[in-house]
Design goal:
The chain is an alpha/beta fold. It is built from six helices and six strands. β5, α6 and β6 form a beta-alpha-beta unit. The N terminus and C terminus are likely disordered.
Length: about 150
């Protein structure tokens, strides 16, 4: 089995990812995977905490869960779009049917339970898209069943 580092070699330019999810084990797992792939990671257990962290850190990507109490991923994504219109956002969800409105606020959607390579591949593609100044808020890749 290939390790994450072999599939996506570490970058010398560590980008900071903000992960937002109310499920603590999911945050811990994503942090481990992303750090092994060479990213720096900060986590938030709610949308409100994530938005505060976004104000105090220079973040390169946001990965957020759709279903969270208090403020769901859709509301968080729209607030991020308002304050940081070009910041790439990846939405995760265990739900099969995420409302169209939610997907219009993000750059990519990845179903929970996919192998780490799917999320890492999505980050890699969005990195390339950022370099070409893609329009904000346009869903570029939707992978409900993996690559």
């Amino acid at each position: 089995m290939l390790s994450v580092a072999k599939v996506f070699p570490q970058s010398s330019n560590k980008k900071l990812i903000l992960c937002i999810d109310d499920y603590k084990q999911g945050l811990q797992a994503r942090r481990l995977i992303l750090e092994r792939a060479g990213y720096k990671v900060i986590t938030a257990s709610s949308g409100r905490i994530g938005l505060r962290l976004l104000q105090s850190h220079t973040v390169h990507f946001v990965i957020l869960d759709y279903r969270m109490p208090e403020m769901n991923g859709e509301a968080v994504a729209y607030e991020i779009r308002r304050t940081h219109p070009r910041l790439p956002i990846i939405m995760l969800s265990g739900q099969i049917d995420v409302p169209k409105r939610a997907s219009s606020a993000v750059d990519a959607f990845v179903s929970k339970g996919q192998p780490p390579a799917v999320l890492l591949g999505c980050l890699n593609l969005l990195s390339e898209g950022v370099a070409t100044k893609r329009p904000p808020g346009k869903v570029t890749h939707v992978w409900p069943n993996g690559l």
